[in-house]
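TA notes, week 10

Several of you asked for a full example with nothing omitted. So below is the full record: structure tokens for the whole chain, then the designed sequence directly under it. When grading your own attempts, check the secondary structure regions first.
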């Protein structure tokens, strides 16, 4: 009998077919966002599950699904998965790094530029019919080229954004991260490590790219926003909850910072109501990795991992991007 696996959300059918060649596959063609109880019900008898960045996989769920052997996500961020709980139960976990780095960095840069140059705000103005004459200072924003780019979290995506800023836009790059980059990478990016307060004080454009964890919850709140320049922008493409959205909305309304670009939100898909009414923020629905080729690459990588974790396919027994490889051996 073939092992049974579950694909939690609607995924490119041809990519799901790669699983069907080896497994009995249950899919969610209707793309229903299952409750926890529904997810547990669908997981009964399944040896593997394909998840996205939103299905919570924790100890209690694992205990309710004792046949589960592999949890393979098409997201790079894995704060929805309790990896130690999986490891303790011998369940392999994989994420989907690298394949989305450049696409996500492109989007982070676009959001930062849109905030700095007031693109969304001015587009809404035009669409509303309010544009009746050209004016010298209408929607005058802040420059990106030559400005100081501050990167909070200097992993793969942070470095790709820094590279765009330094090489493409002549920006001075400063960053804050728990660990410093190698000197050679700092030199290539022209990036200087600074403490968090210096990063907040000196950045003209702050881009947040840290993973979410208890330690990064509200890493940027009222106190941190108070350190920023009134002309600065803040862009968050990491996870909701890293920025205190209520404090950010207030800072934007009071023009204590100039503008923000947000792709992720606390409690998304709900968005803090104050953010929906302040004009100087660009809001997008968690789409930083959403180019078609990249979303397909992410899904294919999750499938590669699921096949391999359950002993099928060309990488059988050797998932390409495991988070807890110790369970394999
Ligand atoms: C995904 C993401 O779109 O990879 C991540 O961590 O946040 C996004 O790129 C989403 O989570 C897909 O599952």
């Amino acid at each position: 009998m073939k092992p049974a696996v579950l694909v939690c959300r609607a995924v490119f059918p041809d990519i799901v077919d790669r699983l069907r060649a080896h497994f009995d596959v249950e899919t969610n063609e209707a793309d229903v966002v299952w409750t926890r109880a529904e997810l547990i019900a669908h997981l009964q008898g399944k040896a593997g599950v394909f998840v996205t960045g939103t299905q919570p996989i924790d100890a209690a769920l694992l205990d309710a699904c004792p046949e589960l052997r592999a949890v393979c996500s098409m997201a790079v961020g894995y704060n929805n998965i309790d990896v130690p709980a999986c490891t303790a139960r011998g369940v392999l976990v994989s994420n989907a790094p690298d394949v989305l780095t450049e696409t996500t960095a492109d989007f982070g840069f676009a959001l930062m530029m849109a905030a700095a140059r007031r693109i969304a705000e001015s587009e809404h103005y035009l669409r509303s019919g309010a544009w009746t004459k050209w004016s010298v200072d209408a929607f005058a924003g802040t420059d990106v080229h030559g400005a100081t780019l501050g990167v909070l979290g200097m992993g793969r995506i942070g470095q790709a954004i820094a590279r765009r800023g330094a090489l493409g836009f002549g920006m001075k790059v400063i960053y804050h991260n728990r660990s410093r980059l190698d000197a050679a990478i700092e030199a290539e990016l022209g990036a200087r490590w600074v403490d968090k307060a210096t990063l907040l004080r000196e950045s003209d454009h702050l881009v947040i790219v840290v993973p979410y964890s208890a330690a990064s919850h509200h890493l940027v709140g009222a106190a941190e926003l108070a350190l920023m320049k009134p002309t600065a922008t803040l862009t968050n493409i990491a996870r909701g909850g890293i920025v205190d959205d209520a404090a950010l909305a207030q800072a934007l309304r009071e023009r204590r910072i100039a503008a923000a670009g947000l792709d992720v939100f606390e409690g998304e898909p709900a968005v803090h109501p104050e953010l929906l009414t302040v004009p100087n923020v660009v809001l997008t629905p968690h789409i930083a990795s959403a180019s078609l080729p990249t979303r397909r690459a992410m899904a294919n990588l999750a499938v590669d991992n699921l096949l391999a974790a359950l002993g099928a396919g060309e990488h059988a027994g050797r998932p390409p991007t495991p988070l807890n490889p110790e369970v394999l051996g």
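The CA atoms of residues 10 and 31 lie 5 Å apart. Use that as a sanity check on your answer.
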